[in-house]
Specification:
With about 220 residues, the chain is an alpha+beta fold. Helices cover about 60% and strands about 10% of the residues.
């Protein structure tokens, strides 16, 4: 009875994981991932204030006009220019921002002389291409270790577990990110690494549990 229950639990887990991955694939195909603003297609304006600015003051103005989904950065060596970036900036919003900033600082740039510049989106593969080669090398080293460590075991079984378990774990993670619309950006590589380590530890533990007494 316990064996049947354990088997049923495994089936339920596999079914749930499969549904999550399928849902993630569908959502990714239809809507893509929800990327952080710095990686999205967006628009920006530059305001040359001609003096060192207090970023917090500019940020407060931009939040009032555009909402909180925006980026404000000081540029130039003297921090006397600000770049304001959002998914979309209308002419009215641009004018409102420039005029409000002029209420705090005196500078020559006028709202009508300020251009809204389009910024292209960054592709997911370009965001993380620097991690691909190290990840492949790590996977090969782990696989080599597992084959040496468990050389007298079913080689095919060891290979399948070492490769398949981390892949399924990563697909599940990416599917959850797609479903929940968590912004893809700096935190994702950290999550991927943590999940990968967890998956490998699970495989090692599984192999140790099934290790024959003659190996000890």
């Amino acid at each position: 009875m316990e064996q049947v229950t354990g088997k049923n639990k495994k089936i339920y887990v596999i079914a749930i994981v499969a549904l999550i991955i399928i849902a993630g694939i569908v959502i990714t195909a239809v809507w893509g991932f929800n990327k952080e603003l710095k990686y999205k297609q967006s628009q920006s304006i530059n305001i040359y204030v001609e003096q060192k600015v207090e970023k917090n003051k500019i940020k407060d103005i931009v939040n009032q006009v555009l909402g909180k989904n925006n980026m404000v950065q000081t540029v130039e060596i003297y921090e006397d220019m600000v770049t304001i970036r959002a998914e979309e900036i209308s002419e009215e919003q641009k004018n409102d921002i420039v005029n409000k900033v002029k209420e705090i600082y005196e500078f020559e740039q006028k709202a009508e002389d300020t251009n809204i510049k389009p910024i292209s989106a960054v592709r997911i593969r370009d965001m993380y291409k620097q991690y691909i080669l190290p990840f492949i090398i790590t996977e090969m080293l782990v696989l080599a270790y597992m084959l040496v460590r468990y050389y007298n075991r079913d080689t095919l079984k060891v290979i399948v577990r070492t490769v398949l378990v981390p892949v399924i774990a990563e697909l599940t993670l990416l599917s959850i990110i797609a479903i929940t619309r968590i912004p893809v950006g700096r935190i994702v590589p950290i999550l991927v690494i943590l999940v990968y380590i967890g998956a490998i530890l699970y495989v090692v533990k599984k192999e140790e549990i099934e290790r024959p007494e003659t190996e000890e």
